[in-house]
Amino acid sequence: MAKFMVLLTDDPSYWATCTPEQMQEVIKQYVAWSMKTHATKRIKVGHKLADEGGKRLLKGRGKVKVTDGPFAESHEVIGGFYVLEADSYAHCIELLADHPHLVHGQRIDVRAIEEVRARGRRKK
């Protein structure tokens, strides 16, 4: 069975317009979807990412440069992620079709995970 990285991309300005009561309802929707999908044993891991920015690393001239970011004020941020197990891309998309993130007009990106063994050999 294949594994897929699912990235939940947010527009933070959308969530800023929600009242506390609306946010509580949104949270209930996300929890209900997660519990339903956990019951099928398809979610291998999943987390909401912290709202504050993170760190970006770049390497140039032999040194690693660390900067703050991306910031919650950005137009788009990755707000959370899952690793799902599915039979195919089509199956993964089927599992995500009723995800609350889509209901709220946000974007979900899906990438197949290519498992790599030690010494860089791909798993067959």
Notable features of this structure?
4-stranded antiparallel sheet, alpha+beta, flat, Alpha-Beta Plaits, two-stranded antiparallel sheet, 124 residues
Q: Based on helices, strands and strand pairing, what is the structural class?
A: alpha+beta
Distance between the termini: 12 Å
The CATH superfamily name is: Dimeric alpha+beta barrel
User: Helicity level, as a percent range?
Assistant: 25-40%
In total, the number of domains comes to 1
Rounded to the nearest angstrom, the radius of gyration is 17 Å
- Second rung of CATH, namely the architecture: 2-Layer Sandwich
Which runs of at least 5 residues are low in confidence (pLDDT < 50)? none
Identify the overall geometry.
Answer: flat
* Tally of strands: 6
**What's the helix-strand series?**
EHHEEEEHHE
Strand order of the largest sheet: 2-5-1-6
According to CATH, the fold-level topology is Alpha-Beta Plaits
Q: Taking all residues together, what is the mean pLDDT?
A: 89
Major β-sheet annotation? 4 strands, antiparallel
* Main CATH class: Alpha Beta
